[in-house]
Fold this sequence. Notes:
By secondary structure, the protein is an alpha/beta fold. The chain has helices at about 15-20, 35-45, 60-65, 70-75, 95-105, 115-120, 170-175, 185-205, 210-225, 230-240, 245-255, 285-290, 295-300, 305-320, 365-375; strands at about 25-30, 50-55, 85, 110-115, 135, 260-265, 280, 330-335, 340-345, 350-355, 385, 395, 400-405. The protein is built from 15 helices and 13 strands. The radius of gyration is 22 Å and the shape is globular.
Amino acid sequence: MQGKNxxxxxxxxxxLRQDLKNNKPLLLLGPRQVGKTTLIxxxxxxxxxxxxxxxxxxxxxxxxxxxxxxxxxxxxAIDGNPLVFVDEAQKIPEVFDxxxxxxxxxxxxxxxxxxxxxxxxxxxxNLLPGRVTKYSLDPLTWSExxxxxxxxxKELSVNNINKNTSYSFKESLVFGSLPSxxxxxxxxxxxxxxxxxxxxxxxxxxxxxxxxxxxxxxLELAANESGTNxxxxxxxxxxxxxxxTIKEFYQILIDTLIVEKIDPFLKNARKRILASSRYxxxxxxVRNAVARLPLTQDTVNTQKGVLFEHAVILEIIRxxxxxxxxxxxxxxxxSGGAEVDCVLDLGxxxxxxEIKSSKSIxxxxxxxxxxxxxxxxTIAKRAYIITLEGKKEKLSDKIISLPWHQL
Length: 407
């Protein structure tokens, strides 16, 4: 299956195939170009009794927009229990009602994909609660790019499912990990086109075209602030729109799956914890292009710490989704300056994780980890430092340092 002209294996594939074998309806969400359509097409390739609706096709979309019930009539005319694949379902939220009718009548099994929860929320779409299993697909994980040499944190353990491509980890820090970027020759043009297409198709479709200039300025500023606690007042002043509008813009990015919102870890805190959220763009290449950074290896040299932290945070989020776990990701920072880049909440235990781009780590640099372990000693039994270079090392009874490819 894998190769230059074949899709890469995806971690979610096995789970989706199993659910489909059990006739479970599926909803797969994810940003544009992460490979949703390719993955589903591969999974259903050998299924004969199937019907496919590609709503990005204008003629198909116009037909169903004019009469959403046409899906019901067409499927009811087919013998057996067909598989129905609806791609980009958010374009016509009414298709979810047709899907519910057919699912409840046991006349079809559905797979629906979508790239924007905003359209569905705005139109109060029926997301088939209790009827579909929802999954999220992200850009490629390190195991999907063949980067893993070992997994130290057993709760996030994965193995390589594709051979190491010619694409390198350092390239991924610049160009990101959208599947199409791997074999694209002109990676910069691809990313520039992606961001322009996103602005044109997604943002104008969100009915804020009168604010598109302000949104474009905000988007560039937000990309540069990605991974920080953004100063909303500063963003308001620099983009020329009000603070409430800045909050609205961030919500658009969340709903269209362009940014990941990371909240502070606040459980049972005795110390004063900073409570504002952080936002990470879903892909480093998209973030760098939107921020108008040079898409060259020089960017790694000038922003090594920022890019590496992004890469690790995004990898943890992607693994949680690919493994279909209910873990939560937070950050922790006190008013006194103690900070932990990532707190992995397993439900029964929390794991603080510090991210360092330097090769060697001294215990004096780990005040945040020590403070967190002391504050939450009943639920935090171990801590990790993820490094850009170096080897796995036990720094104390509770703290292990490991290179990124052994996460």
